[in-house]
Amino acid sequence: MAKTDKIIIANWKMKIGIDESLKLAKKLKTKFKSLKGEFVVCPNFLSLLEVGKTLKASGIDLGAQDVFWEENGAYTGEISPEMLVEAGCKYVIIGHSERRKFLMENYEMIHKETKAVMNHEDLTPVVCIGENWDERKTDRRDFVLFDQLQQALSGLDIVGNQQIIIAYEPIWAIGSGTAIEPTEAEYAHKIIRLTLNDMFGMKIVNNNFKIIYGGSINSKNVKGFVGLDNLDGMLVGGASLDADEIFKVAKAVMR
Ligand code: PGA
After folding, report:
1. Is the pLDDT of residue 3 over 80?
2. Tens digits of residue pLDDT in 176-202
3. Which of 7, 172, 235, 253 is the pocket-test mutation for ligand 1 (most atoms within 8 Å of CB)?
4. What is the CATH number of the domain that holds 52?
5. What is the distance in A from the centroid of ligand 1 to the CA of 193?
6. For 162-173, what is the mean pLDDT?
7. Mean pLDDT along residues 131-140
8. 17, 30, 96, 109: most buried, per Cβ within 10 A?
């Protein structure tokens, strides 16, 4: 993936089962034939293999929605980074706010997951960060972003071409139907970039990081985000379940 390529990541969450995931993958395979840029779908774990087979040689990449931090062992119910690679995944979402909320994922877990994934140069972590409504209302967003980046990434060695994607997802915008103002996203992305510059140096940030936005993006509001200086792509939930809709989003971003 070239640094300048925009990326669209479709997060299907737990919204569709195996059958529907396959049907959607087939539609996308036909639709996305002509589109340049990086497009990734993240189905549920059960659908990964079949969706992967369907998308083989289509140019659409496969991602997972979560990962555990150990490679193997007695960890009932978990899936390791190596297993994801074996299943054909190139990306994995880490620390999504829904997991933080419903599964009590904490900073330490997110750090360990990110670290474990970074042992695999071919697997790119998509680390989700973002403030909740209360934090935004009380002007604590900048600190929250700074803190979440520090907690997730401090002390990690970034070597070679290892890619890392930071997904800025204001929690209050996710699934709400209304994205935040593009200018506000640009501001948050700038805070993220400056924090990363401080942590890793500009050269590494320019080469190895992408910063993307997520939270109620659809074909109508996406246009406002196109061309923002610090926006490398989108993480799309609801709108990614409709092939026409996500194609329009991708087309707008990957022009
Ligand atoms: P949404 O979800 O597009 O439905 O708001 C985005 C996400 O949670 O990644």
Report:
1. no
2. 999 999 999 999 999 999 999 999 999
3. 235
4. 3.20.20.70
5. 22
6. 96
7. 95
8. 96
Whether 162 maps to a domain, the answer reads yes
Q: For residue 31, tell me if it sits in a domain.
A: yes
Dist. CA 241–CA 245, nearest whole Å: 8
Give the E-state strand segments of 31-171 in sequence order: 38-42, 60-64, 89-94, 124-129, 164-168
Is the predicted pLDDT of residue 255 greater than 80, yes or no?
no
- In this structure, is residue 1 part of a structural domain? no
Task: Please check whether residue 2 lies inside any domain of the structure.
Answer: no
What single string gives the DSSP state of each residue in 90-129? Answer: EEEEES-HHHHHHS---HHHHHHHHHHHTT-TT-EEEEEE
Pocket test for ligand 1, best of 9, 97, 236, 246 (most atoms within 8 A of CB): 236
* Domain span including residue 240: 7-254
d(CA 12, ligand 1 centre) in Å? 9
Q: What is the total count of domains within the chain?
A: 1
